[in-house]
Amino acid sequence: MIHLAKYEQSDRLRSLPPYLFVRLEELAAVKRKEGMDMIDFGIGDPDLPTPDKIVKSLQIAAEKNEFQKYSSSQGEKDLRDAVAKWYKKRFGVDVDPDTQVCVTVGSKEAIFNVSQAFVNPGEVIIAPSPGYPVYSGAAVLFNEAKCALVPLRADREWLLDVDECPRDAKLLYINYPNNPTGATCDLEYLEKVYKWCQDTDTILCYDNAYSEMCYDNYRAPSILQVGPDCIEFGSFSKTFNMTGYRLGYAVGHPDLVGALKKCKGQIDSGAPIFTQKAGITALEMYPDDGSLPRELKKNMDIFAERREVLVNGLRELGFDVPMPKGTFYVWFNCGMPSDEFTEKMLDLGIIVTPGPGFGSSAQGYIRMTVTEPVERIKEALVRMKRGCVSC
Predict the structure, then answer these.
(1) For position 390, what pLDDT does the model report?
(2) Which of 31, 33, 104, 340 is deepest in the core (most CB within 10 A)?
(3) Alpha-carbon Rg for the chain in angstroms
(4) Which of 76-85, 139-148, 343-352 is the most confident on average?
């Protein structure tokens, strides 16, 4: 008989908090088991389908034997070429597909693996708070590193202030359009961050997963428009509604991308080739001027309408909610402890994400996604009004 209790987890694994969305799903599952209809504004998983032409290209590729084999940790040459061409179209940036591009299994693994490639025990990783949990969680703990959490503030439009960052750090994570706040930035801001990283010899890791999820004529920049001495992470997940495909890319300085490739070579054998073929189709949807393809614009119009319905509805309930220009997240101060508000919502059949899940500095804040149809958003607002939920 095997006694599982004797298999003690490592200190680092036990130090890692439960992943936020796993816990939310467990709580929601209890409510569903009780028969409650749950309206889910929690995890950022698009409800809209992958564009048809991408799905069809995946189906065709999956039927070919040569595309059913191992890829490489660097990714297929034709997808790397497509990423380089897309960067030229979209951002006007020239990159070498052989030395500056690496295909990734979604952007999440690359965000983690770049820290594995460069950070030694005891060195400092700078992470924004609130921010994507991988920055301050797994990336720090599994490298036995120290984390310098730098608070993002509403009165600074949720922009990280590099003047508050330690100057002896090894690596800095930054992300705009921002998860969870929906904040955006311009090239002038990125130039300041880039210069600071150059002056302090800090590796600049730019998470640009939401670059194509923008509203009100805003278009997100790339850090590579500022300079080459950095690494940027992109993803097919949100842009093309391809979260389950697990496909992304890293683009940047050859030394940074090269180290990431070396790390990945010990960990994975690359994303499936047939999935990469679908990624080529996705990027080739963009016209030569880099503007948003018709299919993606249609999706963003849907998200934009939902965003306005949710924000305006929350405002009518008395909450001070900014209208985000990027991502599909709505971020606001709920006027009480975040966990208390989240529990109130669960009792009403509504799933939201408490701010402290993205960092302790976000106490009192809530993130909601616009991944539910307008009718469901309106129903949630009605439930909130009936439940006397207001600030």
Answers:
(1) 61
(2) 104
(3) 21
(4) 76-85
Locate all alpha helices (DSSP H) within the chain, ordered by sequence.
11-15, 20-33, 52-62, 77-91, 106-118, 133-136, 138-141, 187-200, 254-265, 273-283, 294-316, 338-347, 374-386
CB 270, CB 74: distance < 8 Å: yes
Mean pLDDT of 183-190: 98
Q: Rounded CA gap, 369 and 371, in Å?
A: 6
Weakest-pLDDT range from 40-44, 79-83, 369-373? 40-44
Q: pLDDT at position 1, please?
A: 47
Token digits of residue 5? 């209790």
Q: Structural domains in the chain?
A: 4-49+293-386 (3.90.1150.10), 52-283 (3.40.640.10)
Sheet strands side by side (includes 101-104)? 101-104, 248-252, 231-235, 203-207, 171-175, 124-129, 146-151
Nearest to 235 by CA among 45, 78, 49: 45
b/e burial code for range 72-97 (CB count within 10 A of at least 16 → b): bbbbbeebbebbbbbbebbbebebeb
Q: CA-based angle 323:324:330, to the nearest 5? A: 85
3-state secondary structure of 390: coil
Q: Is the pLDDT of residue 17 over 80?
A: no
In this structure, the chain runs to a length of: 391
Residue with the two structure tokens 């790339």: 222
- Retrieve residue 146's tokens: 């120290």
- Please give the average per-residue pLDDT across 286-307, as a whole number: 97
Do residues 123 and 145 lie in contact, with contact meaning Cβ atoms separated by under 8 Å? yes
Token duo for residue 95 = 């990159």
Q: Does this model's pTM top 0.85?
A: yes
